[in-house]
Write a structure and sequence with these properties.
Elements: H1 3-7, H2 21-25, H3 30-36, H4 49-62, H5 66-79, H6 81-90, H7 92-99, H8 103-109, H9 111-114, E1 121-124, H10 131-135, E2 144-148, H11 165-178, E3 185-191, H12 197-200, H13 215-232, E4 237-240, H14 247-253, E5 259-261, H15 262-282, E6 291-294, H16 298-313, H17 318-322, E7 325-329, E8 332-333, H18 344-347, H19 362-369, E9 373-376, H20 386-395, E10 400-403, H21 415-421, E11 427-430, E12 437-439, E13 442-444, E14 447-448, H22 455-465, H23 472-483, H24 488-492, H25 503-521, H26 534-544, H27 557-565
Parallel strand pairs: 1-3, 2-3, 2-4, 4-5, 6-7, 6-9, 9-10, 10-11, 11-14
Antiparallel strand pairs: 7-8, 12-13
Helix pairs in contact: 5-6, 6-11, 11-22, 15-16, 15-23, 19-20, 22-25, 23-25, 25-26
The structure holds nicotinamide-adenine-dinucleotide, (2S)-2-hydroxybutanedioic acid and magnesium ion (MG).
């Protein structure tokens, strides 16, 4: 097939931010509608955003299942992007579980059935050699992309191109939490085959019906892709997400591109952020902690490596810090004499003090180690059963229990189980949300150690500092900044993480920490930011954040001029109004 045939574009480019004048027109007064030639195309009422938001919430309430709510919100984002983000930012606690974990998990499993419109880009293995040209089909200037090969979607396994829900969901959070403009985000899914046989055989599946390509083939493909992305958008920040084996690409690209892997690094940072507060609340000094990790994959090892860094900052040697971890994977305790070949990333934490005993039972290992900390990153829902939780409560005044597997069905225990089996004494954070719980006289609120506390700030910090790479210090700074972001009330209530409703404020603090670390490491190109003090830097960050409340609900640059010069009461700036592809707003 010739190059032209490969790249032939049958219709208009995919539009992540498809908007129609009709949706925006709802709040335009009649004179503007007449000017735009849209008069008569929408109902006569001129509606404020608030009225439109009320209707959206009612519509949402009418949808009986989470997946139908997810579909409605997808439709809203595609047809009225500012209204969607206004709704999301005003209802972040309630809506995040619908656009992200846990609902996004179900959406990815069923993506081939529920798909109605493209959002983001797909690049296939058969496109290699042409990746740079294909990127030209994307109509917007991109500042950040989230890319996945779909090979490990949450704890749900290999979902191939169905994994697109994850980049779309994470980038929506980049916009809602850190104010990265929606049109500057690119959800990207790599169609590199899938080992999910049922999907390959499903007539509705939309990716290549071949097994996953080899690691070597993937490496070559990613080499081409990284070069193509940075050639097209030289300051782009690239977030890798939900790869089955994320370590090779992280090692290969982290010093040469502005990239990070959220499952390894973002997870590590967010857990350390809450962990710092849990250690304080536990009353046990850092040097006396011992941690069992159920699950020794990318997330588990990513978390432990960053806790090692924290322990070192608390005065331990690296060797002392490393020895505080006992990992369990599907073959039992990770030891150097287990008899199987350990994956490279596990070797650092392999135990050699097990006296030849290969613990298969978590309970027995708990008796042996007497841990203060139990982390779950195993994808095994319910693995922290009653016996295990009660044993942790017997060993500790304030056991630290973090069941982090996603979505909720894979969580190693629920908040309720953890509270009831530890007499309400546990210090708890999960990956997916759980409701608050009345226990005795108290209302207990679970921590949600979700990456959304850090990745938006890591991304925005890298964008604003124009970082040439995302250093480990920048990642660690996001954790430390997060741990300082709780207000007095949250600290008094014993929370490990700040209220998610304050996420935009938290993201400013995280972004500032990330920018400062970039400056200290000398990887920042935006050197003018170095002279700003913290207050000035915060003001700069806030000013650069997209705020859907400030967006004009009109279409087209000419109309913007009319409105700013006219007397119709529209006096805001014209932030973000340009004539995009096909006259689309944004
Ligand atoms: N902050 C968060 O909420 C967050 C962030 C990242 C990942 N996660 C979740 O963590 C989980 C793991 O992610 P990952 O990237 O490490 O996946 P992974 O596939 O790399 O690792 C899973 C690990 O669990 C182990 N495991 C499987 N079955 C087991 C069993 N029966 N007993 C003990 N161990 C077992 C595997 O051997 C492997 O070491 C996923 O559910 C993911 O959604 C949560
Ligand atoms: O963002 C999260 O917290 C989810 C995480 O990336 C995951 O893979 O489970
Ligand atoms: Mg992930």
């Amino acid at each position: 097939m010739s190059q032209n045939q490969t790249l032939a574009r049958p219709g208009p480019p995919p539009r992540q931010l498809s908007t129609t004048s009709g949706d925006y027109d709802s709040s335009n007064p009649p004179d503007v509608r007449k000017y735009l030639g849209t008069y008569g195309l929408t109902p006569p009422a001129v509606e404020s955003f608030d009225v439109q938001a009320q209707r959206c919430l009612r519509l949402l309430a009418m949808k009986p299942t989470p997946i139908e709510k997810f579909q409605y919100l997808t439709h809203l984002r595609a047809t009225n992007v500012h209204l969607f983000y206004r709704l999301l930012s005003e209802n972040i606690k309630e809506l995040t579980p619908l656009i992200y974990t846990p609902t996004v998990g179900e959406a990815c499993v069923r993506w081939h059935e529920i798909f109605t419109q493209p959002e983001g880009m797909y690049l296939s293995y058969t496109d290699r050699g042409h990746l740079r040209q294909i990127l030209d089909n994307w109509p917007y200037k991109v500042e950040i992309t989230v890319l996945t090969d779909g090979s490990r979607i949450l704890g749900l396994g290999d979902l191939g191109v169905n994994g697109m829900g994850i980049p779309v969901g994470k980038l929506a959070l980049y916009t809602a939490c850190a104010g990265i403009r929606p049109e500057a985000t690119l959800p990207l899914t790599l169609d590199l085959g899938t080992n999910n046989k049922a999907l390959r055989e499903d007539p509705l599946y939309m990716g290549a019906r071949v097994p996953k390509i080899s690691a070597e083939e993937e490496k070559e493909f990613l080499d081409e892709l990284m070069a193509a992305l940075t050639d097209k958008w030289p300051s782009i920040v690239i977030q890798f997400e939900d790869f089955k084996n994320p370590f090779p690409s992280l090692e290969r690209y982290q010093n040469t591109y502005a990239m990070f892997n959220d499952d390894v690094q973002g997870t590590g940072a967010v857990i350390v952020g809450g962990f710092i507060n849990a250690v304080k609340a536990s009353g046990v000094p850092a040097k006396d902690h011992r941690a069992i990790f159920l699950g020794a994959g990318s997330a588990g090892v990513g978390v432990a490596k960053q806790i090692v860094e924290f322990f070192i900052k608390e005065g331990l040697t690296e060797e002392e810090a490393r020895r505080k971890f006992w990992f369990v994977d599907s073959n039992g305790l990770v030891t150097s004499d287990r008899g199987d070949k350990l994956a490279d990333h596990k070797v650092y934490f392999a135990r050699n003090d097990n006296n030849g005993r290969q613990y298969q039972s978590l309970l027995r290992l708990i008796d042996f180690v007497r841990p203060t900390i139990l982390m779950g990153l195993s994808t095994i829902g319910g693995a922290f059963n009653t016996d295990i939780l009660q044993r942790m409560a017997k060993l500790n005044d304030r056991p630290i229990i973090f069941p982090l597997s996603n979505p909720s069905s894979k969580s190693e225990c629920t908040f309720e189980e953890a509270v009831h089996n530890t007499d309400g004494r546990c210090l708890f954070a999960s990956g997916s949300p759980f409701p608050s719980l009345e226990y005795g006289e108290k209302l207990l609120t679970p921590g949600q150690g979700n990456n959304m506390y850090v990745f938006p700030g890591i991304g925005l910090g890298a964008i604003l500092s124009e970082a040439v790479s995302v250093t480990q210090d920048m990642i660690y700074a996001s954790a430390e900044s997060l741990s300082t972001s709780l207000n007095k009330q949250e600290v008094a209530d014993g929370w490990l993480y700040p209220d998610i409703r304050r996420i935009r404020e938290v993201s400013v603090i995280v972004t500032r920490g990330v920018i400062r670390a970039a400056q200290q490491n000398g990887v920042d190109r935006a050197v003018k930011l170095r002279s700003l003090n913290d207050e000035q830097l915060d003001a700069y960050i806030k000013e650069r954040m997209y705020d859907p409340h400030q967006e004009r609900d009109i279409v087209g640059g000419e109309a913007a001029q009319l409105l700013t010069s006219g007397t119709n009461g529209y006096t805001n700036g014209v932030n973000g109004i340009t004539n995009g592809v096909s006259g689309a707003h944004l």
